[in-house]
Amino acid sequence: MTADALTDVTGLRVGHATRIGEGWLTGTTVVLAPEGGAVAAVDVRGGGPGTKETDALDPRNLVRKVEAVVLTGGSAYGLDAASGVMGWLEERGRGVRVGPDPAHVVPVVPAACVFDLGRGGDFRARPDAALGRAAVEAAAASGDGAAVAEGCVGAGTGAVVGAVKGGIGTASTVLGSGITVAALVVANAAGEALDPRTGVLYGELFQGRVEYPAARVHEAARRRLAEVAAENAPPPLNTTLAVVATDAALSKAQAQKVAGTAHDGIARAVRPVHLLNDGDTVFALATGDRPLDADSPLALNDLLAAAADTVTRAIVRAVRAAGPVAGPGGAWPSYGELYGTP
Q: Contact at 8 Å (CB) between 253 and 59?
């Protein structure tokens, strides 16, 4: 039995910290690696990214493993959440050893943010170090293989995809080799997740599991979305973030290839994608519990294909799990409110 979540990769844990009300509509999500870290890489495709420590993940550079990855709301301000995660890791001696004392460590905590400023009504209500610490504490307190909350939680709290509410989604798959590939996404895109002609989610078209809404339902949804677009301020900056993880043993270069191919999963579920006002970023983590077939130079291919497919499915789940939001910062209907749930 699996959770169909990022936590199906043994050793990974996910924690959310969420702030809603009194001007707040934002949060932070932390992916916590097993002690000793996971091989990590990143691929940034959006034209307006907000990131921290991504240069450290370049395969040409020193750092090979990281202890945690932070996904956060609050645009660039929200990157302060990573400081709270660093402090928590330092207290436990987890990080890159830089001195003779075991406590002399520098935790490398890559982070990326989504734009959700003002969506709760207060432009200055955004994640900080305390919220980051709360998220990593929640991750540490969860059990191995724990279910991961989806929808309007953590970094997905204030997320919006086009004119509908976005959020957190996760999914996993097990390859024939026994290797697990999983993804967690924050769906917060300037593009649309649903086909305006039919109301079907693009990601479900790709998956081949499509139930077309009745014409009257779609027409009512189109009217509602037009009203929302006229009432809300246009989304100036948006971003889809993802963490793709596997229990395979990968080099940093292989992990970077996984992160790059996983962007195809975003492109299948969101249109258009990777715009100048997006900051689309995918992190890849490999825990190294299962070796790839050393005799096959193409052994990575199945993992690459699964990474993209799993990201697509996670985005669909994010949009379907999100609930509607209406407040001083704007109103965003959910896909389920517009079209019902399957």
A: yes
